[in-house]
Amino acid sequence: MLATFCQFVPGIRLSGVEGLEFSATTREEQGYLRLVITGKLADDLPGAIEQYARLSAMTYPLGHKRILVDARAMESRLSIPDTFEFVGLTCPEEPDVFRRAVIERPEHVHVARFFESLLRQRGRVYRVFFDEAEALAWLFSDEP
Q1: Residue-level pLDDT at 10
Q2: Looking at residue 82, what is its pLDDT?
Q3: Nearest alpha carbon to residue 102 among 50, 35, 9
Q4: Looking at the predicted structure, is the pLDDT value of residue 71 above 90?
């Protein structure tokens, strides 16, 4: 099973998930985990939830509290209504022990900021950036 495999192997690559044309690679860096996502994000809610579940199975068990997500090579995003529903289905309102900085493309600013706002309202420590150096500086800061 892929999720079981992912739990124990850092630096793995996830790809070819039944009709979902995306891949993800993890790399352990000094003090954080780098997750690079490329390809097409599912444009429907069930597909996006499946991708999220697989990415979670790939990253959380590695034990890093700081995660840098590079989403600049992702080709698409969910719509605003689907983003709202996605967060409602996948992110319960509770404090989070993880600190996530996400590097996004400027053309996705509206949905990225909306997603960030929803997650932060639910207790997540999550910020969107368009510059990697700024994302890393925040990741290691005490700034909320």
Answers
A1: 37
A2: 94
A3: 35
A4: yes
Distance CA 125, CA 23 (A): 24
Give the chain's domain count.
Answer: 1
| Containing structural domain, residue 61 | 42-144
Q: What is the pTM of this model?
A: 0.84
In the block, which residue shows the tokens 């289905």?
89
Q: Does some domain include residue 74?
A: yes
Q: Where are the alpha helices (DSSP H) in 1-144?
A: 2-8, 45-59, 80-90, 109-121, 132-139
In a domain, 12, yes or no: no
Write the single-letter amino acid at 68.
Answer: L
Q: How far is 39 from 46, CA to CA, in rounded Å? A: 17
Q: 18 in a domain, yes or no?
A: no
Alpha carbon of 16 to those of 21, 44, 116: distances in Å?
Answer: 6, 17, 28
- In this structure, is residue 14 part of a structural domain? no
pLDDT digits (tens, 9 = 90+) for 26-51: 999 999 999 999 988 887 888 888 88
